[in-house]
Amino acid sequence: MSSTRRIRSQSAPTPIPPVPLTIEGYSVLHQMLRVRWAALRQLSSREKSEIVDEAGDALAKMEQNTSGQSGLYSLLGHKGDLMLVHFRPSFDELNCAELKLARLRLNDYLEPAASYLSVIELGLYESSIKAYRELSDRGVEPHSEEWNRDIAETVARQTEAMRPRLFPELPGHRYISFYPMDRRRGEEKNWYTLPIEERARQMNEHGLVGRRYAGEVKQIITGSIGFDDWEWGVDLFADDPLVFKKLIYEMRFDEVSAVYALFGHFYIGVRCPSGQLGSLLNGELPRS
User: Fold this and answer.
1) Catalytic positions
2) Given the DSSP bridges, would you call strands 267-271 and 70-75 parallel, antiparallel or unpaired?
């Protein structure tokens, strides 16, 4: 053991880092679009049919893609008419999906309303604290070669164990609720100044609520720090849209939401399989 390590082991433990480890999976792109209904109405039945067939074939391939799927949703309200959700292994492949859709004739009758870029993310609060403390107790200097090697092994183990959650199929539920969110960084309350142990406690309590709804809602959390205007994106999938209201309302009573959460726009959509695109553009509600 080096003298540095001997001295450290006889003194106070090394302070553990404040940043929890995360593991990442699919890259995710949400595209919110408006339909140019007036221009679409000017098309002949034949032209419209050709446009719908081309787009439907492209969407069908994206729905069945084995390395990350896409889904189309009919949005409710004024924020847009359609929302496309893409899961892909990389940003490059997301861009390819975006460009493929841009080349379709249907794109001439669509206008972007909003978009959101992120990656599926799982935060490892408990594993982080455990790993940090074990390394600190051994006197390992944070971010040293030995520290980084052990942390990389922890991340690799967790990634393999959580692979189904990091690379899921796009849920087939009828309804989706998507919204971005932040943690407060204001003058009075700042999530990022709390000790990591306290953040872990609050996140654990927050997660208990979500787990009670596990049979009714599928939740996918994506990280967007450095990628988009908010810090996280949340996708909820369910066959009964009222469960979105109940779940989110109950979560607002958690300390982490009541004190530290800020929310962006909510987008609610109805799933539209590719084969029903023509019906949707004719003003008919997608069938279950």
Assistant:
1) 179
2) antiparallel
**157 and 215 share one domain:** yes
Domain of residue 250, residue span: 124-270
pTM of the model: 0.92
> CA-CA distance, 6 to 8, in Å (whole number)?
5
**Can you tell me the distance from the alpha carbon of 28 to that of 54, in angstroms, rounded to the nearest whole number?**
24
Q: How many helices (H) and strands (E) does the chain have?
A: 11, 9
Q: Provide the 3-class DSSP secondary structure of residue 106.
A: helix
Do 108 and 60 fall within a single domain? yes
12 located within any domain:
no
Give the CATH number, domain containing residue 168: 3.30.70.1030
Neighbouring CB atoms inside 10 A of 261's CB total: 18
Please, what is the average pLDDT of the chain? Answer: 93
Torsion of CA 191, 193, 198, 204, to 10 degrees: 30
Q: Read off the pLDDT of residues 57-90 as tens digits, 9 standing for 90 and up.
A: 999 999 999 999 999 999 999 999 999 999 999 9
Looking at the structure, do residues 94 and 139 belong to the same domain, yes or no? no
